Amino acid sequence: MTAPAPAPAPAAASTAAKAKSAPQKAMEKLGLVRDIDLALHLPHRYEDETRITPIGALRDNEPAQVEGVVVDCQVEMRGRRQLLVRLKDESGSLLLRFLHFYPSQQKQMSAATRLRVRGEARIGFFGREMVHPVVKVVDDTTPLAQSLTPVYPASAQLPQAYLRKAVASGLARADLREILPHGVVPPGLPSLKDALNYLHHPPPSAQLAALEDHSHPAWQRLKFEELLAQQLSQLRAQRERALLVAPALRGQPGGLHERLLGVLPFQLTAAQQRVCEEIAQDLARPQPMHRLLQGDVGSGKTVVAALAAAVAIGAGWQCALMAPTEILAEQHFRKLIGWLEPLGLKIAWITGSVKGKARQAMLDAAASGEAQLVVGTHAVIEDKVRFAKLGLAIIDEQHRFGVAQRLALRQKLKAMDLEPHMLMMSATPIPRTLAMTYFADLDVSTIDELPPGRSPIVTKVFTDSKRDDVIDKIRMAVADGAQVYWVCPLVEESEAIDLRNATETHEELSATLAGTSVGLLHGRMSPADKAAVMAQFSSGQMSVLVATTVIEVGVDVPNASLMVIEHAERFGLAQLHQLRGRVGRGAKASVCVLIYTPPLSDTGKSRLKAMAETTDGFEIARRDLDIRGPGEFMGSRQSGAELLRFADLQEDAPLLVAARALAPQLLDRAPDAAHRQVTRWLGTKAEFLKA
Ligand code: ADP
Ligand code: MG
């Protein structure tokens, strides 16, 4: 019995002053506000109410619709109270069984009533039966549905029947005229209007499989439209940015940049040279650079950043270097000081742990321009710091920053009327298709080679029953002069418990490895204590470091060659890869041991498998994308990711390529159409894609 649904109000009225009904609010929550939003809300599956299957031809466990006359209807006790209705047609009879029911239902299905019933049949104790089918009272003239019945993604407050009506009327009202000029859509695809009508109300003959796996041409058309809108909005953002003015920063012969190259203790790899050249070309232009430098953990991004900073500073401008954590900022600081200070640079150090007078002095140095390089955590830089002449901002581990944060940062960093250049660095490479969509507005440089002399990391996976054996391995490694990380997981909801775990593990290892220096590092320690522990570990005085994920990003101790990650099943793939990247930085053969507690979930299994099979960050990123899908891959804060509702970046790469090729042409030749396309698809969300 389908409950009669109240007729939904036109979508436009939902913004009116009168109180909104619960379903209206639920629709808004799903983003179903404009007619076009409703028209673009597509079924995720269909029910076939277009035909009647004879009861005698029913097959087990397959959804079907039958029609017949009730011959018997009663409540019986069979283990529990239930309503049993026997339905008969010319070909046979079927038992309908209801474990929950209202007296009204019993009345409605009384003997001699004609019923149309939909559900899955199966063989029960008393012959063929359907449990809790959908039931409709009919007569001989009740027509069958002419098209498949759509089932829409809904929510608890939004009944399917209400949503169906709302979508049908939204679809009827929406302006679906073709925006795209003739001949630009890939051949063989229907018009948008035909595609939508088809997908909302497919004919009985439709290929359900092609509809449900989205390979049908109607789906292809929608995905193409969506990808095109997204490409257009990115392209627009890119062109807007190109109108902004930035200082042209050029390295001079014999300048700071060349002097830094002269004092480096190593030769740049070919990949490092190439990306340095790409960055230098950008910096020399009077438009702001917006470049992502990606390179696997340990590929040597820091020195590339230092060289870019040297170009900016050599040209008379300031450079800001931001990192997500203090530990990482501190690492940069030490490395950069080691390289740049002998060249006569003044560096300001701004993080939460620099306080009082010292802090004010640093802020003053940044504001006056006396400090040419400002290093710190992003939080501090966002709030307080003023620059005299900021030419370049470098953000490390950019994936840790959300879209909104990046936008805010750009505003903040504006000096005078000029935009600074921006270099973002990430060890989590963005797979190509993602880069082409979400980061179409970002130029990408890739370091695809590790510095020479690294030995590959061997990864081993054990259950926690092998924990003692692992501790034995540590003892042997330490006796051999190795340094070891032991990582304990941090589960956000129970930081206290984790802290206890880390502390207990520290005590346990200190006791079992008597005579060995075992340190502890976690997020609740004061920055000074953290720095002290890191210094001991870096200098080799400490052999084993028990840590929570505070060491996840950027920590660089080349002598560390063994890493144990406990409860590895609790970590994400990118995080595991980042952690593992802390070893394998020196010449020593390195080992990463992943200890897990069974049972493993399927995704947990594929994560650990990926870790054991490859150390290539790009391969890891691809698999991560497979496991999690693009939305999660990008991180929840980057909710711009949700904008791709239909297209699948893996499967629809050809459509993406076509959309990408069309976008610039359309923007040049039919800017008005381009604008309408973006508005139709993205509404007000388009801003989000600019960050
Ligand atoms: P990441 O890309 O993960 O930030 P780092 O910049 O921390 O990597 O570099 C990792 C280590 O490799 C550092 O100790 C760094 O000094 C060293 N390194 C960087 N480039 C080279 C190179 N061309 N040759 C040798 N060692 C290098
Ligand atoms: Mg780094």
UniProtKB/TrEMBL annotation:
<feature type="region of interest" description="Disordered">
    <location>
        <begin position="1"/>
        <end position="21"/>
    </location>
</feature>
<dbReference type="InterPro" id="IPR004609">
    <property type="entry name" value="ATP-dep_DNA_helicase_RecG"/>
</dbReference>
<dbReference type="InterPro" id="IPR011545">
    <property type="entry name" value="DEAD/DEAH_box_helicase_dom"/>
</dbReference>
<keyword id="KW-0238">DNA-binding</keyword>
<dbReference type="Pfam" id="PF00270">
    <property type="entry name" value="DEAD"/>
</dbReference>
<keyword id="KW-0234">DNA repair</keyword>
<keyword id="KW-0347">Helicase</keyword>
<dbReference type="InterPro" id="IPR027417">
    <property type="entry name" value="P-loop_NTPase"/>
</dbReference>
<dbReference type="InterPro" id="IPR001650">
    <property type="entry name" value="Helicase_C-like"/>
</dbReference>
<keyword id="KW-0067">ATP-binding</keyword>
<dbReference type="InterPro" id="IPR045562">
    <property type="entry name" value="RecG_dom3_C"/>
</dbReference>
<dbReference type="Pfam" id="PF17191">
    <property type="entry name" value="RecG_wedge"/>
</dbReference>
<comment type="similarity">
    <text>Belongs to the helicase family. RecG subfamily.</text>
</comment>
<protein>
    <recommendedName>
        <fullName>ATP-dependent DNA helicase RecG</fullName>
        <ecNumber>5.6.2.4</ecNumber>
    </recommendedName>
</protein>
<dbReference type="InterPro" id="IPR014001">
    <property type="entry name" value="Helicase_ATP-bd"/>
</dbReference>
<dbReference type="Pfam" id="PF19833">
    <property type="entry name" value="RecG_dom3_C"/>
</dbReference>
<keyword id="KW-0547">Nucleotide-binding</keyword>
<keyword id="KW-0378">Hydrolase</keyword>
<dbReference type="Pfam" id="PF00271">
    <property type="entry name" value="Helicase_C"/>
</dbReference>
<keyword id="KW-0227">DNA damage</keyword>
<dbReference type="GO" id="GO:0016787">
    <property type="term" value="F:hydrolase activity"/>
</dbReference>
<feature type="domain" description="Helicase ATP-binding">
    <location>
        <begin position="282"/>
        <end position="447"/>
    </location>
</feature>
<dbReference type="InterPro" id="IPR012340">
    <property type="entry name" value="NA-bd_OB-fold"/>
</dbReference>
<comment type="function">
    <text>Plays a critical role in recombination and DNA repair. Helps process Holliday junction intermediates to mature products by catalyzing branch migration. Has replication fork regression activity, unwinds stalled or blocked replication forks to make a HJ that can be resolved. Has a DNA unwinding activity characteristic of a DNA helicase with 3'-5' polarity.</text>
</comment>
<dbReference type="GO" id="GO:0003678">
    <property type="term" value="F:DNA helicase activity"/>
</dbReference>
<feature type="domain" description="Helicase C-terminal">
    <location>
        <begin position="470"/>
        <end position="631"/>
    </location>
</feature>
<dbReference type="InterPro" id="IPR033454">
    <property type="entry name" value="RecG_wedge"/>
</dbReference>
<dbReference type="InterPro" id="IPR047112">
    <property type="entry name" value="RecG/Mfd"/>
</dbReference>
<feature type="compositionally biased region" description="Low complexity">
    <location>
        <begin position="10"/>
        <end position="21"/>
    </location>
</feature>
<keyword id="KW-0233">DNA recombination</keyword>
<keyword id="KW-0413">Isomerase</keyword>
